[in-house]
Amino acid sequence: MRDPGRGAPAVLLTVDQVADRLQVSRWTVYNLIRSRELASLTIGRCRRISEAALHDYIARQSEREIA
Q1: Is residue 7 left, alpha or beta, with left meaning phi > 0 and alpha meaning psi from -120 to 50?
Q2: 2-46, pLDDT tens digit by residue?
Q3: CB count, 10 Å around CB of 16?
Q4: Does a structural domain hold residue 54?
Q5: Which residues lie closer than 8 Å to 61 by C-beta, 6 or more apart?
Q6: Which of 22, 26, 51, 57 could lock 11 by a disulfide, CB 3.0 to 4.6 Å apart?
Q7: Cβ neighbours for 9, distance < 8 A, ≥ 6 positions apart
Q8: Number of domains present in the structure of the chain
Q9: How far is the C-alpha of 9 from the C-alpha of 44, rounded, in Å?
Q10: Where are the coiled-coil regions (predicted)?
Q11: 20: domain range?
Q12: Residue 62, CA distances (Å) to 2, 5, 66 in order
């Protein structure tokens, strides 16, 4: 899968991978998805989060901390 604006392949992460990167629980990641703070998609029965969505979430959180 390619991201048309960037030319690089899009990377999809599992909930566990995102939890590891954010150093939070799986429950917290699912809560972020439910509250629509973290964008995700479903492939079959699997929930995936793009690396871009994770970076966007982190950037928004960083902006809130600075403001």
Answers
A1: left
A2: 555 566 667 999 999 999 999 999 999 999 999 999 999 999 999
A3: 10
A4: yes
A5: none
A6: 51
A7: 1, 2, 3
A8: 1
A9: 20
A10: none
A11: 12-66
A12: 27, 24, 6
